[in-house]
Design goal:
mainly alpha
Length: about 375
């Protein structure tokens, strides 16, 4: 059993990944079309979803989503829902890994084949996703302790830069009251979505309780502010929208004056390579467990354990094949479109998940009353 602090680590992992992935690009694309008001709307919505989910999952101590759904729904319904949620959560890692391979070729090693880079990432992610949930959380804790202070230092370097343009930020603020849109709200709420990992990790928490929700809200506000205003201040109100990866272009414009490595982008790349790999490991682990739960594969007997391990390898192999095929079939434009579709569907899927958990709580209470 693990302590409640690991829930905050799951949220923090998703929040830090938010700084580099497709979310900043979407926010910056809509910087003149309601991005700021969308962020202000997303903060209470995301906080409410997180709070409601944690209150509901507390009513199922030691159980993951497979155990919950399989106990209150017919086998075929729970199976379909679990497989869909597992594939949906895995799809997030597809976008993360493919985009990070593209980042590697753009900024670090353009001469290395992207397939070789991707295969190296997949070996690490696939093997690590087979670890037990506790080991993954312990590894996550170590990575965050090493990377978060560096991220804070880099954010300070951005906003203390003498070339940072506060006029560009003021220009964006003048569009504060522009009409928001669903796409930008869905993108901004993604920062809170780390709580969904609890659909599997709840199995190993001891007396799971979440306190100090206000601290999560503060971190989310600061993270969203950095993700949109850091690129705008250094790249310009107009220029920020011309970059495929605004966060990396921002880091590439910074110089580390007293470090052995003079360009900030190399430190930035190493930090976010670690975070992207850990994020993908967590998503693969959760997706794998949900899919196995959809097929009702248990590990309470030696025969069941062997069968589950065999199926596990096939699931992970399918995950690898999908990413390899995706990397060869899509470009940066289709990748951006895929990210937008994923964020839109995920946002609606979170509301559905909350509704399903309400239904599960109602069914459990009704069953207890009958007993």
């Amino acid at each position: 059993m693990v302590r409640n602090k690991y829930f905050y680590y799951l949220f923090l992992l998703n929040a830090t990944i938010n700084l580099i992935n497709y979310v900043p690009r979407i926010l910056i694309q809509d910087r003149f079309d309601g991005a700021l008001i969308s962020i202000l709307i997303a903060i209470p919505i995301g906080s409410l979803l997180l709070y409601t989910f944690t209150k509901l999952i507390q009513k199922f101590p030691g159980e993951g989503l497979p155990e919950i759904f399989n106990s209150v729904m017919p086998a075929w319904i729970s199976g379909v829902l679990l497989v869909l949620y597992g594939l949906g959560w895995y799809f997030s890692s597809v976008i993360t890994l493919v985009s990070f391979v593209d980042i590697t070729n753009r900024y670090v090693s353009p001469d290395v084949s992207p397939i070789i880079v991707l295969i190296g990432f997949l070996v690490v992610v696939a093997l690590s996703a087979r670890l037990d949930s506790e080991s993954i959380l312990y590894a996550l804790e170590m990575i965050l302790y090493m990377t978060v202070p560096i991220i804070m230092y880099m954010a300070w370097r951005v906003f203390s830069n003498p070339y940072y343009s506060w006029d560009a930020v003021r220009q964006i603020i003048t569009h504060l009251w522009d009409i928001p849109n669903y796409r930008t709200v869905a993108a901004a709420t993604y920062i809170y979505t780390g709580y969904i990992n609890m659909v599997v990790f709840n199995r190993i928490f001891h007396k799971f309780r979440v306190k100090h929700i206000w601290s999560i809200v503060i971190v989310s506000i600061l993270t969203l502010a950095v993700s949109i205003f850091a690129p705008i201040g250094l790249l310009g109100a107009a220029g920020a929208g011309e970059h495929v990866y605004p966060a990396f272009s921002t880091a590439d414009s910074l110089r580390i004056r007293y470090f052995i490595i003079e360009r900030m982008i190399y430190v930035f790349y190493v930090v976010y390579m670690c975070l992207s790999l850990v994020n993908s490991i967590v998503h693969w682990h959760v997706g794998k467990e949900l899919i196995l739960g959809g097929f009702r594969l248990k590990s309470d007997k030696p025969e069941s354990i062997r069968k589950k391990r065999k199926v596990e390898w096939w699931v992970l192999a399918a995950f690898c094949v999908i990413i390899l095929a995706s990397s060869m079939a899509i470009n940066q434009y289709s990748l951006n479109d895929m990210a937008i579709v994923f964020l839109d569907v995920r946002f609606a899927g979170e509301f559905l998940l909350i509704a399903l958990l309400f239904y599960a709580v109602w069914r459990r209470r009704r069953r207890r009353k009958r007993a």
